[in-house]
Design goal:
Elements (H helix, E strand, L loop, with lengths): L2 H8 L5 E7 L3 H12 L4 E4 L15 E2 L11 H17 L4 E10 L6 H8 L11 H14 L10 E4 H7 L9 E10 L2 H15 L4 E3 L3 E6 L2 E5 L5 E11 L5 H7 L10 E8 L2 H7 L3 E5 L5 E7 L2 E5 L3 E2 L10 H14 L10 E9 L16 E2 L2 E2 L9 E3 L1 E2 L5 H15 L23 H15 L3 H11 L2 H7 L9 E2 L2 E5 H10 L5 H8 L10 H15 L3 H19 L22
Parallel strand pairs: 1-2, 1-10, 2-7, 4-12, 10-19
Antiparallel strand pairs: 3-6, 4-6, 5-6, 8-9, 9-10, 11-14, 11-15, 11-16, 12-13, 13-14, 17-20, 18-19, 21-22
Helix pairs in contact: 2-7, 2-11, 12-13, 15-17, 17-18
Amino acid sequence: MTADLQQRFSDLGGGDIDVLIIGAGINGAGLFRDLSVQGVNCLIVDKADFGSGTSAAPSRLIHGGLKYLETGEFGLVAQSTLERNLLLKNAPHCVEPLPTFIPVFSWTRGIWAAIRTLFGSKTAPRSRGAVLIKIGLRLYDFFGSRDRVMPKHRLILKKQARKEMPHVTPAIVAGGIYYDAKISRPERLVYELVRDGLDANPKSLAANFTTMETVSGGSLTFRQADGREFAVKPKLVVNAAGPWIDHVNAALGAPSKMIGGTKGSHILLDHPELVRSLNGHMIYFEADDGRICLVYSYLGLALVGSTDIPADNPDDVRCEEPETDYFLESVRSLLPTLRFDRDQIVYSYSGIRPLPASDATAPGLISRDHSAPVKEPKGNRPFPIVSLVGGKWTTFRGFAEEVADTVLSRLQRNRNESTRYLAIGGGKGFPADGEKRGHWIKDLAAKASITIERADELLGRYGTTAAAILASASVHSDDTRLTGAPQHSFKEIDWITRNELVVHLADIVLRRTTLAIEGRLTIEGLREIAGIAAAALGWDAARAEREIADVTGQLSRFHGQVLTSTAPAAERGKAHRFTAK
């Protein structure tokens, strides 16, 4: 914890706070920033790290939800496409356009089934033909017209489609191309929202790895990672715990049954030929069983996802063997001239989507819309509880705005500022076009005595925060690089550890950076990071060893990644990989 934040907790005094937010995922962090910007004194707490739960396990897309058109959720699509466009402007260091290719296998299939779904049918997904896809893409362009920043769709015939996507099965009859967006560092963006909230209001507080110990009347006691306790008396509590919402409500004395989650898993492949052939596109396709899958280039790897399986245990979720088999069979069927096998898998991850309880027979048809039901004060509980149910990564700002307005009304306060065009974290002051970017990079390179290429790399990774990192006083040089991950310097890790509310080693490699998911870690590199963190945070040798063991255990158990001292996962075994079938 930084000295400034420690002082804020010391000044908490009697513990009076306007709003307590439990859960620091994307919805909680977005609301924390919005309310803090309005001058509301907020405390956000999480039992783990910021953005470490469901928010760390998305498909890493910022999208309008094309498939929601067929369930008639036009309002959700309208909001999602708007928020997608806004994020491209407000977080350009993390979010970028993603041209998307839809393989089409028939001309008219699926029309009547789509009509049935539109009128409320709960049947499973089905194949969609060119006519249906064309209608959908036209609607998608229409709903995405507000603050548009990307081109409209186009439908291409088989010959052109196979020219653009050369490995796609010859069974297609056409292809659709439209634009959504991807987010390179979702976990980091969650932290940046929390940081922005702290910067906006000097009386707001944030605490990760903090557990709720007691609830007594209107007072809640929490224990922090260092063992220190504090108590707060909130006027209002927001339950933003995602798939843990019902557990938190029960602990607050307000039992509920709001969540009916589904599990979404993904794998990342080291597959250079596939990445090259995608040419920056995502392929959004139906697997043989009718479920929607996707594959696209993510930080030089190929991300494949996702499943949608009913599940309710967010504390012990991982990508299982049948899911891996499903992914590999799906991409083999779609791209028959490429080889896909388990030795190409660098990383896997899974999370529970906090969807509303539903009787839908197909998980894919459960609404991704959001709601915020309120449990009014009752008995010896003097505060209302607002639960943030459902939603999707893309719509967090709009959801936060809706809930913030509700909270402001209850507190009899007015909105001071809109977050619609409020830049996030390293997106503040981000150069708006190629010419301005060139000037910014050249200026940074000159000030920090680094190459233009390095300045460009750091701007892409941290946004304009790169300037603060390079300007910081540190015993480490930017020239000293991590073993196995030469794109990352000791100086970066030192700055992150000292300035970004790091508690554990896993916070650095899994969330503040993308070292783990990129498969860039080695045992030697992890020890180097642990050494930097130990010096910054005052760990002794035993603590550093425990932190290393914890990271290697998490990577092996939950992400299918075993670290070695010889080579990162992303480079292991390349010599014996063959991509052609």
